Structure formats: structure tokens, C-alpha cells
Amino acid sequence: MDVSRRHLDDNAFDLLPTEEQVLRVALVVLLVLLAALFSGLTLGLMCLDKFGLQIVVDAGEDAHATEDEKTNAKYAKKIQKVRQDGHLLLTSLLIANVSVSTILSIVLADMTSGVTGFLISTVVLVLFGELLPQALCSRHPLFIGAKSLPIVWFFVVVLYVIAKPIALALDWMLGREIGNLFTKREIGKMLDIHVKQNLLDADETDIMRGAMHFKAKVVASVMTPIDQVYSLPTTTKLTLATIRHIYQQGYSRIPVYHKDIHDIVGLIFVKDLIFADPAEETTLLHFVHVFGRGVHRVWPDSTLGDVLQAFKMGRTHLALVHDVNNAGPGDPFYETKGIVTLEDIVEEILQADIYDESDQIDADVTRKNRLSHRSYDTGVDRVILDDDRTKKLAKPEADALAKYLVASEPVFLTPDANGVPLDVAKVSNLLSQSHLLEFRAQDSPHAELLTQGKATNGCVIVLQGHVIVSSNSDSSTKRGLWSLFGAHALLECDAESDVTVDLPPDEYVRCVRVSRLDFQATLFPMNIAEQPAVLAERRLEIQIHQDHQDHNAFIISHYCRQCFTVT
Fold first, then answer.
1. Cβ atoms < 10 Å from Cβ of 223
2. Do 74 and 126 belong together in one domain?
3. SS3 416
4. Phi/psi at 65 (nearest 5 deg)?
5. What is the reported pLDDT for 233?
6. What is the CATH number of the domain that holds 423?
């Protein structure tokens, strides 16, 4: 009797009507799909922590994001909402998965029995309900998770009454989920993995490591010792030879000391030397007081992060490193140990030495034993050479003068052909092309630069020394650096000088003459003419309108080399 009943149970599924068999098979397939979905989503969604999703979203919203990054960001943004409460999502998916697996086991038990039923149930649940879906979802969690959100939300809502208390209990016992965070050491190891996978190169990882670790380094490890620093005493006189020597050193900032090298009282910026008049032989002490370049001081054990912040707030690129000297029987005193520059900190971040085009690189010399770089155009040196090789302004001096003229002289804000006022770049270019005049004491007497009542074809700007200015009132005054005379002649064709500008017999004077023709050419640019007749016409026009013989010859020779026509 028992054997016959067992035989009937084994064939019970075969005895069912065909329609019911089809429904049971369809139910098994549906349950397997649901079990696979919940199992895969449990692994796929839970491996996406909050910080990881936010990183994907932010990367996709970047202006330079790729199409794949934008697509992943769209998926991640959808998943973020359901992933906010991690314990609720986990509880809902597990309850649903266990429920579906239990129902599937019961249905399969009714359809099969014995060893056959055990094998079928095990293979179906493990292979199709767990293994394949988890492997698939672990590879594509964003895509599958975003596409399955409606089903996930449905079961979260349906199971909310059961899942929420369990989730709250997990929050109370384990704390709320905050996401995965990494230490600097772990991030460094992650960078190594990215380099091995060719996602980053070595230079990029070096910079990242430098940016992470430079703040912990101290100034003493990167500073330049004070005995290797180029510095000058306060008694130094700014003669032409001294200025030339300073420029040739190639440093942008130079410490100035009083008693000895440990008594630093200030800094001079080499670019400020353009304001120095070699004829006056000003001392560095006076020069430092005039320009007020203070010195920022730090301690040897100060971190590079603190020093960088000080550089950013104080708008300085160099600091003195000082420390208390307790040696000897006397009282402790402050002693300068060296200097640290912004470049030193940048090199620590980049994990590489920085060289410019004029550095002399010696492989046997460490970075701490070399100091600074030439930060100026070598054309600056020509400005201070005491010979006749220089007949044009060098660019740094032209730029400085152009900034002053644009800020203080209305004529250099005249609108051009397009109605746009002249800017510093255009004025600097005009000054660089203008004729440079030099008058030495040994060559006196000199002719007058400008004569009141006489025609002039341009303006004169004093660059160095002083000139004597007089008018009909019989009073005369001395005018110096960047004084401008004859500005109206840049705009008027038949302008006459309103003052007389004379040169002192015992002083070196250097000035630049800006011609009306060059000024107008800056306002109304000229193009090269293809017809020779235009050249002849232009020559005749120049000869008629230019009163100054020397300047007239200069202009004609200029146009002999290239033919222009007004656009």
C-alpha cells in the first residue's frame, strides 16, 4: 500500500491536466527569475555605497565627462534615492528573496520527489537563482539596478511594514551606513593599482602623492641654507654697474641684510629696479624703505601646508626661515637659517625639480644647493647696458611704462578704428617700437628736446635722469621719471610744443620719443601695399608733414623697407 502511494506521488505531476502543468512550469520560471533578480540586486545594489554613487554622479556632471561617464551618472542618480536607507533596502531584498526561494522549493517539491527533486531544486536555485545573477549584477550594477528600480520600489513598499522595524533595529545596533572611506596610505595603494592597469601614468600618481603628503613635511627639509643665498648689504649703492650685476644673477627676489647675513631687514624685487636712477646712487636701505617690501618669517618646523597658506594670503613667494640660537653663554637670539620659496613647495607637490630655460643644471648638485631661476627676459639686461647697442625699449620696461601711461595719461586711452580704447598691450608694443634717446654728460651741450612754439611730431617721455622744463613765465622746474611732454602732438598734425624741454649738462638722461605717425598707426593699423605707387604717395605725404629732419629721415627709411597703406 505504501509503495503504491509513493508511486502515485511520483507520478502526480504527470497525472495533472496539461493546462495545470503549463501553469506550474510558468510559475517555477517566474519564481526563478524573481529569485535571480533579488539575489543579484542584493549583491549589486549593496556594493554601491553612497560615496561611490556620488562620485559617479559628480564625474558625469563634469563639463569634460565622456559619454560613458554621463550614462553611468544618469543610472547612479536614479539608484541614489533607493540606496539612501541601506538597511531598509537590504532587509526588503532579503525577505523577498527568501520568500520566493521558499515558495519555489514548495512548488518543485510538488512536481518532483526523491533524489531527482533534490538535484533539480539544487541546480535551479544555485545556478539560476544565485550564481549567474550575482555574477552578472556584480559586473553591471548601475545598469541593472537602474532598470530594475520599479520592481525594487514595489517590494520595498509592499514589505515596508515588516522590513522597516528590522532596518531600524540594524541602525540602532550597527549605526547608519556612511559609505566607504580610505586612508592616504590606502589611496596610495589604489593609485599603484591604477598605474598597473594603465589608467594613470607615473607622473600623475607622483603629483597626487605629493599633494597628499606635502602638508606633513617641514620647512627645514626643503629650505635653501642662508649661506647659499645671494643677498646684499643695505649699504650697497644702486649704480649702473650694481644694477647690471644684480640683473645678471637671475634672481627675482633678493634679501637685504644690515649687520650680517642673519640680520635680514627686507627684500628687493628685481623688477622694482626699473625705478632706480643709477645717477642718484641710491642705497639699498633707502630703496627698501621706499618700496616697503616686508619679509615673511617662518620656523624650521613649520609645515609646508601652513607656509603655502601664508603665501596665498600674504601674496608673497619667499619667506625667511629663522630659529632661536641658544648656543653660547649669552642670551638667546633669532638667527636666519635659510629661505623657502613657493617654488620649493610646488616641487614637493610635483615630486620633481623645476628648471626654466636659463637654469644651469648640474646633476651632482642637489636641489637645495641651487637657488632660484632667471625669471626675467634676458632683454632686460640691455636696458642697463652702458653702450649704444640699445635703441629700443626692452619689453619689461615697456610693459611697466605702458601700465603707467594707460592709467594716468588720457591720450593713451584714445579709441582706435573700432572705437576700443588703447590697452596696455598695444601701448607697450608702441613703446617697444619707438626711438630711444640717450644723452651723456660728457657729450654736452645738448640740443633742446622740445622748444616752445615750435612744431613737434610726437611726444617725449623721460625714462631716466631729469630734464629742465620752462615756459614764457621764465620759471623752470626739474621733471624726472616718466614725465610726459607734447602729448597733444600725438593727435594734432601741426602741433606746437607748449614748453621748452632742455637737458642738464651734468647728468645722464634717457628718454623715449613716440612719433605721431607710430601712434596713429597703432590706432589705425596699416597693411602691406602691393602697388609701388602707394609707396611713392606715402613717401611724399611723410616729407610734407614732417618738420623734424632727423625724424623725417628715420620714417622714410622705415617705409623704404616695407610699403604700407592705411586700411
1. 22
2. yes
3. coil
4. -70, 145
5. 92
6. 2.60.120.10
Which residues, at least 6 apart from 180, have a Cβ–Cβ distance to it below 8 Å? 49, 51, 52
Are residues 40 and 120 located together in one domain of the fold?
yes
Same domain as 233, residue 210: no
Q: Of residues 4 and 56, which shows the higher confidence score?
A: 56
Kindly report, residue by residue over 154-180, the tens digit of the pLDDT.
888 888 888 888 988 888 888 776 667
* The three cell numbers locating residue 47: 556594493
C-alpha cell at 552: 623725417
Number of domains comprising the chain: 5
Residue 263 has pLDDT above 80, yes or no: yes
- Which structural domain range is residue 228 located in? 219-359
148 and 22 together in one domain? yes
Residue finishing a domain among 174, 205, 234: 174
Q: Using CA atoms, how far apart are residues 77 and 58, in angstroms rounded to an integer?
A: 10
Q: Distance of CA 126 to CAs 84, 111, 121, 135, 328, Å?
A: 30, 18, 8, 12, 82
Tally of residues, the chain: 567
Is 12 within the bounds of a domain?
yes
Domain end, chosen from 216, 237, 271, is at 216
Are 430 and 548 within one domain?
A: no
Question: b/e map of 460-474 (b: 16 or more CB within 10 Å)?
Answer: bbbbbbbbbbeeeee
Q: State the chain's mean pLDDT as an integer.
A: 77
Q: Quick one: 326 and 400 in the same domain?
A: no
- Domain for residue 379, yes or no? no
Higher pLDDT, 389 or 166: 166
* 367 domain residue, yes or no: no
Contacts of 383 (CB under 8 A, 6+ apart): 274, 390, 393, 394, 396, 397
How large a percentage of the chain has pLDDT more than 70?
80
Over the stretch 6-25, which tens digit does the pLDDT of each residue have? 444 455 555 566 777 778 78
Query: CB 448: neighbour CB atoms within 10 A?
Result: 15
**Which tops the pLDDT comparison, 182 or 267?**
267
| Residue 136 pLDDT | 83
**Angle ∠(166,168,170) on CA atoms, nearest 5:** 70
| CATH number of the domain encompassing residue 269 | 3.10.580.10
In 3D, which of 55, 103, 47 has the Cα closest to residue 76?
55
In a domain, 371, yes or no: no
Q: What cell numbers appear for 102 in the block? A: 521558499
Type of residue at 512: V
pLDDT surpasses 60 at 553: no
Would you put residue 219 in left (φ > 0), alpha (ψ -120 to 50) or beta? alpha
